[in-house]
Amino acid sequence: MPHTHLDVAGHPRPQLVRDPDWRDLSGSWQFAHDDEELGRAARWMDPDVTAPFTRTVTVPCPPESEASGIRDTGFHPVLWYRRTIDVPRPAEGRRLLLHFGAVDYRAEVWLNGRPVGRHEGGHTGFSCDLTDAVDRDGEQVLVVRAEDRPLDAAQPRGKQDWRRDPHVIWYHRTSGIWQPVWLEDVPDEHVTALHWTPDVAHALVRCRVHLGRWPRRPLHLTVRLTRGEQVLAEQRMLTDGQETALDVAVPALRHGQELDELLWSPEHPHLVDATVVLSDAADGTPVDHVTSYLGLRDIGWDNGVFLLNHKPYFLRLALQQGYWPATHLSASADALRREAELAKEIGLNGLRIHQKIEDPRFLYWADRLGLVLWEEMPSAYVFGTTTIERVVGEWTEAISRDLSHPSIVAWVPINESWSVPNPAVVPAQRHFMDALYHLTKALDPSRPAVSNDGWEISAADIWGVHDYTQRAEVLNERYGPVSLRHGEVVEQWPGAKRLTLDGVRHQGQPVVLSEFGGATFEPAEGAEWFGYDTVATQQEFADRLASLVRAAVDSGLAGFCYTQFTDTEQETNGLFTADRHPKIPVAELRAILTRPGNAVAS
Length: 602
What we know:
This protein has 602 residues and is α+β, with helices and mostly antiparallel strands. It has helices at residues 333-345, 360-369, 385-402, 427-443, 472-478, 481-485, 538-553, 586-593, and strands spanning 23-24, 27-33, 55-59, 78-87, 94-100, 103-104, 106-111, 114-120, 126-129, 138-147, 176-177, 181-187, 191-199, 204-211, 219-227, 230-239, 243-249, 272-280, 286-294, 299-302, 305-308, 311-312, 315-320, 350-353, 372-376, 408-412, 463-466, 511-517, 519-521, 533-535, 559-563. Helix 1 (333-345) runs parallel beside helix 2 (360-369), helix 3 (385-402) packs parallel to helix 4 and helix 7 (538-553) packs parallel to helix 8 (586-593).
């Protein structure tokens, strides 16, 4: 029976599922540090080499984390993993694929001593074809080498600290395998990527299908969209190439009085099930069959207002670091679901994922439960050719992986000029910022993009401003409805960095207070902590939060993003503690964060 969006929860790739079911390779792997970098020369990848692998790690928890069983947070730039898998040789016309959700930062993979794949980029996935390396039925030896250099400041690392111990707003590292690893048996000619882009105004969905190889003969590609028992669309076309794009008409979207039953929003997160079938064009023989899902919704902006489904929509977000004390950037399927549930429970309609490309299993729950997300590229910390090459490659992969998720409503390639510290005076850095904006829009023209969130704004569809004043009256003065609607901004506010770069003029972009707040309880004596201000009691915390949110919703802003969702290591300014307990009662948080105001569509 085909999968539906109701039963793909927990699948590591929920928007591209095929039968038979995938095989999870999470659990115990043999493990070794390679501080002297001897492993490659000593052939640690060979199946009969076992001596170096003296420890056991729980995959996909990073070895720095408690849950991994290793819990070593020192500098270890090279890691090796080893395990056996029991698989038969693939049948004729079938391929055996090994998928990695993410390996930080550079990975090489061997099966039975034969190289089967490599990848650079610590936050996006990759696949290896094991077929030709399976030289027998039964036990096979799988080895992974991961290289993650803490001192490489040109490596996109996000909030992972380059120092030995966490400081200020940076955290313990997440190295090696940190997202799921799984096996999949697929047809020789098979789908490797699906992209869905809804166009509600024109009553269609743009679909792009990528195959693993150039087909040997013409194939029929059939796309079917359903919602429950209702067939919304079915379309078939001939394909003889590796990538096929088609516009699928959805007649139900033409009925203006019934759109609310179809459109996706945080309040009504309707999802549409999709099946894609490949078959031989000559005789109809099935070749491949995959299931997916999508959401029908449009994103836009006009005259300072963010638009969802062509209607004003006020963004109520919190900054999500996506970090857990026992697992760091990694998380279980249950933890990812609970993260989305907590955001909904306190009345947020979205999250700004900060310095992380989040696990697709979390994106699924945002799609299913109803959250809008900003996705942000993890930053490097020096500017140069190496940084440019790495960021462009990994950001392109991230957008390609995630652009079909209805929950994602904005792309942010750079945060607070990290990796481009002087765009106002170094033309090359500004060119890079603007190039990332245009690259993002070329890859996905359907969503707003923000080249640099926080300040020193250049090319941007949304002006994201970071302002940590703790005084509501200052927010009222800076973000009054009249001034923002007319684009009257002062270059030097709200802090030492210029809001905009030379020549940038407001052209109706929504202005979002994309970081603000950040109060923390007064720390215990001697405790390591970071916050933007301190409060002494729960009541003072609630009063501070309420006053700042009130100012934001009564302003001319298009939305706010509170810093931050949970405490994270020494950065203790969350709405929740690090173990996900609310700082004040959930009902009180919800009342504050959902407060109606003068803002449009609050």
